[in-house]
Structure formats: structure tokens, C-alpha cells
Amino acid sequence: MDKHRQSLMNQAAAYAAQYLSEIDNRPVFPSQATRDRLTEFDFDLPDNGRSDEELLELLHTVGSPATVASAGHRYFGFVTGGSLPVTLASKWLATAWDQNSFSETSSPVGAKIEAVALRWLCELLHLPGDSGGALVTGATLANFCCLAAARSRLLAAAGWDVDASGLFGAPEIPVIVGTEVHATVSKSLSLLGFGRDRVTVVPTDDNGRMQFDQFPKIEKPALIILQAGNVNSGDFDPINDICEHTKGTGSWVHVDGAFGLWAAASEKYRHLVRGLEKADSWAVDGHKWLNVPYDCGIAIVREGDWLKKAMAMSAAYLMQSGASRQPIDFGPEGSRRPRGIEVWAALASLGREGVAALVERCCRHASIAAGLLHEGGCDVLNDIVLNQVLVSFGDDDRTRAVTRAVQDDGTCWCGGTEWKGRTAMRISFSSWATQDEDVERSVAAIIRLARSNDQ
Ligand SMILES: *Cc1c(COP(=O)(O)O)cnc(C)c1O
């Protein structure tokens, strides 16, 4: 049995190593032929199982080629990064541990490393060191956790215990967002009973920033949701102005900084998040710019007790010991994997300087790409403030056609979007693996495809 397990693990490691070593020699998006082969997974549920070796081989021969090469050098879709080698290796080891990391009792190592990762994150991002936090599946759930904590405090201040009594009959809490609010924030608002549409919407400017001069007067304590890093333009709401404006009103300011919050780790870009530490809660992704594997998002709440109030539960068998932090008290999940390990590994391996360098390199790639695209006759639609480039190739139909051609070509992968009423192609630089030559090669392919589209 042991021998079988060992040989299976070795085989998986060999397949994975081969996959990663060949990833940059194939189209970034899998071909139709490789996707057609996915039907090979769709056999009838066997009465008697097939061999483990055979299944692993099927995953490697049919599954690997049908992946999107987002772990490679030239994937520029969805503001997502790849995986730093140390985070992938740590995740493998932790997968072998198979820890249930809801508490210190179920996993001493999981609970400890998670607490350290959260402390380091607050330090790195210049957030209050005694904040509470949760490691969740992504910024969607991180937003959800922060807004749940906000809901508990705002309603408690209005004399209502929402966690015990629910929302029926509760006092109303105004919610303020910008026109560029991320869809996952709207989803969280709907899940939490605030309502997706029951919001006051503040207009945004040409680069997607909330317009401070249009921000409403605060009449009563409100939930205010700001954005650090617009998914299209990469720009930031005026966090400091709004925090100063709402100070002393009993409002709760939440910052959705899924990727943009990492700007706080760089001296050069920290000005973009000025006033960040004045907010009440922050959501950030590990699996985007920190380049840890999926799935990993982080919720940080200044007054962690409100997060705990919203999330903690009790049962006789959960019996917690001592004063140390129990992960289950701060997040929506019970049983789960120890996802703090990859964050811990990434931060310990990169150090402060390494995180700053990663952020700055990606931003530099965005500037280089925007410059080359402009020289190549393409229309760059946004001010490049961070790692995002929006480009148009003329009218909307032509932009759509060129974007499709870029995706089919396979040199790199960029997604499509809409920006201020125009169709655009969106290029996100978020991967540790991207080198200067990948940027040049990719932009050259984009310009070539845009030109050949005319013929
Ligand atoms: C990506 C993103 C989210 C959602 O994050 P997931 O990791 O997909 O859950 C939320 N807000 C912003 C600004 C994002 O960029």
C-alpha cells in the first residue's frame, strides 16, 4: 500500500513537472482538438474501479493539454496571477497533511501558520496590527465576510442584533457604492440581505474613480464600499478623502482591494491607497497578485470582534482551548484546508522587498505594453496607474475581432471588456512568471494580428 502510494505521488510530481516545463511551448488557450478530447473523462461510472495509474495518466494526457496556461508566462486574463514555485510546493506538502484547519485542535500547524500569515499581511499592507481576519476562497467571500461584520456593527449601533434576530424588521442601513462597484460586492450585498439594487450609486470619472465631489452627505451611519484597483482601469477610489469625509458619522468603510490592495506593499505605489488604514475592513486576494494557488482570499476587519460576532458559532464538540485564534470563529466555513500556508510561504519567500518588486515589475510591464501598443497604432483607453491596460483597435466590431484573433493565436491570452461605452481588450499583468521579453513578444503578436485584421 505504501509503495503504491509513493509511486503514485512520484508519478503525479513527474507529470506536474513536465506540465510546467512545457507550458510555454503551447497555445495559452487550449485548441479545439484538445478540448474535444475532454469527452474521454465522460465514461459511465464504473462498477469496478479503474486503476489509479490509469486515471492519473488520463488526467495528464487528456486533462493537461486542455488547461488554460495561466501558470505560464503570457496569460493576461482576469487580473489573476500564477503560482510562485514555493507556494505550489508548500500546497502539495500541506495537501499530503490533509489538515482540517478549522481550529487549533483539528490542526495546530494550520491555525498557527494562518495567524502568522494574517499578522504579516497587516504589517505589509500597513493595516492595524490588531485587526481580525479570515482566510477564505477569494475576494468574493472576503467581501462577504467584511460586509457581514459591517452589518453586525451598524445594526447593533441602531439597537438591533442582526445575527440573532435576522433582517426582518431591522432598521434600514444606507449603502453607498460607486458605479464601478465589482459584481462580487453586489452579490455579497444581495446574500447579506442589503439588496443588490438598494444602494446609492456615486458616479465615477474617466478612469473609473469615484468622484468625491459627487459623494453624498452622510445623514446617518452608512455602509460605504470603496474600490482599490478597478478591474478594468486599475485605478483607485479616493480612499483618504472619503474616510475623512465620513469620519465620526458611525459609518463603516469597506475597501474591495482584491488585487489593488497590494499597491500598499510598494513605496512607489502606496500613494494610490492613501488613507487605507482609516477604513474599517479590507478584502484582498492571495490568488491574484500574490501569486499563490487557488483558492485564497483574505478578509481583514479592524474591529475583529464584529467579524467574530458575525461568524462564530458554538457546539459542545468544538470546545476551544485557551486564548489563541481559532480559524472557525472568523470565517463562514467549518472544515477546510489550511490555505494560510501558501500565503505564509509567499510572504516568507519574497519578503517585503520581493512583494514590492513583484508589484512594481507588473506595473512596469503595463507601462511598456501601453507604450508599444500606442506606437503600434492601437488606442490605449485608460491612464496606466497600475497593472491594467485597456486597448481598442478601432470600432467595437473590429476590437472584438482582434481580441478573438489574439485568443485564437495562442501567443498570449487577453480578455474582452466594456469601458466607458466602448468595447476593449483588457491586458492584466499579475504574474510573477512574466518577463520583459514575454511582454514584447505578446504585444508584437497583438499588433501583427490587429494589422492583419485589415487585410
Ligand atoms: C477579482 C475581484 C473580486 C473577486 O475576487 P475572487 O477572487 O474572484 O472571488 C472582487 N473585487 C475585485 C476588485 C476583483 O478584482
What does this structure look like?
The chain has 455 residues and is of the alpha/beta class. Helices cover 40% and strands 11% of the residues. It is built from 13 helices and eleven strands. The chain has a seven-stranded mixed β-sheet, with helices on both faces. A hairpin with a 2-residue loop joins strand 10 (415-419) and strand 11 (422-428). It is globular, with a radius of gyration of 23 Å. It binds pyridoxal-5'-phosphate (PLP).
Query: How many separate helices?
Result: 13
Main β-sheet: number of strands, strand sense, barrel status?
7 strands, mixed
Helix content: 40-55%
Strand content: 5-15%
Helix-strand pattern: HHHHHEHHEHEEHEEEHHEEHEEH
List segments where confidence is low: pLDDT < 50 over at least 5 consecutive residues. Answer: none
Q: Give the strand line-up of the largest sheet.
A: 1-7-6-5-4-2-3
Oligomer type: single chain
Give the end-to-end Cα distance, rounded to a whole number of Å.
Answer: 62 Å
Please, what is the average pLDDT?
A: 96
Radius of gyration: 23 Å
Number of strands: 11
What structural class should be given to the helix and strand makeup? alpha/beta
Which ligands does the model contain, each kind named once? pyridoxal-5'-phosphate
Q: What is the 3D shape?
A: globular
